[in-house]
């Protein structure tokens, strides 16, 4: 029994450790961020409110029905409402049901319904646009962690090589082959690389925390991304001109759809405001009845029963009512003017949003070509630096180069390797941004 308990505890500990050491892929990060972002939840509540507004607008087109029961007791001289006789004290019950319906109100209720439908659609675009921004931000933060991790691995590999050179130089100094100054130079290089490793570890940690914060995860110590390296992905996006990418982006981008929906909402607001110019026609029907505890005939001591009185004294009223707005202090006219100004603002904002999108795509297109060239140049520089380093090492090994010059050659290789990693991930992210504007989902493999 004791051994079984130990096995269960061990299995539980292993499973818990694996759960804590879960490493997230990009897709998992994006999906988690979209599903758990607090702002997304707020926008989802706004969308639910917009749907309720639509239900309100539908209800405004339907007849209403209201009942008003009333029970009163009069003390002192009053009149019996059923017999119109004077009495000192009486108990009265009255009740009525009233239904009204708007037949015509300048189409305001109809336009409010259409506006509510548009508003629900606009809120959906707003929510989807937020999710698009989250996906881009998460992808950028994720790639930053990858870039920092690759740089840290490079620093550690460089330090491992320097350690070998350091040990070898110690032996040469001990045997009197090279001066002690060379050893000091290599020790300084090793110390500098150790500092790079410490800084690299800090950058990895900071970028991991930044990504976790985007995901709204607070367990920073047990949060990490999958250990994978990404090469430059193949892409045909540059075969399309910026104009082609822009035209396609106009057809599906949620921020553009939201801006266009805002114009349509403003147009509906103008129609609603114009409705105040027209007469309002409504119909009503009312059913009412009453009861009194007083006799109809004072010589008759009996009282007509409650239910019988309700039927005897009931009545029905119905009719039409029209409200004609002859003059309302220019409020209707000014309301229309204000709504037209809001419409013009929405149209201008729509054009500005399209211009911003076009500018962003143009910049993204230039960034892709620029960062691709920077990456290619960094690779060529690294290749040249490595050849120079190999040549310098051969000279150093035979005593034709001092440790300082050899350390400079190695430092140039280190810098070139760091530039390759940085420009690679800069290019990957810009490439993914441009593809995203073309409608291609963000994926790294």
UniProtKB/TrEMBL annotation:
Record-linked Pfam families: OEP
Cellular compartment(s): Cell outer membrane
Keyword Transmembrane assigned: yes
A GO-annotated cellular component: efflux pump complex
Tagged with keyword Transport: yes
InterPro entries linked to this entry: OMP_efflux (IPR003423), TolC-like (IPR051906)
Family statement: Belongs to the outer membrane factor (OMF) (TC 1.B.17) family.
Protein name as catalogued: Outer membrane protein
Keywords: Cell outer membrane, Membrane, Transmembrane, Transmembrane beta strand, Transport
GO MF terms held by the record: efflux transmembrane transporter activity; porin activity
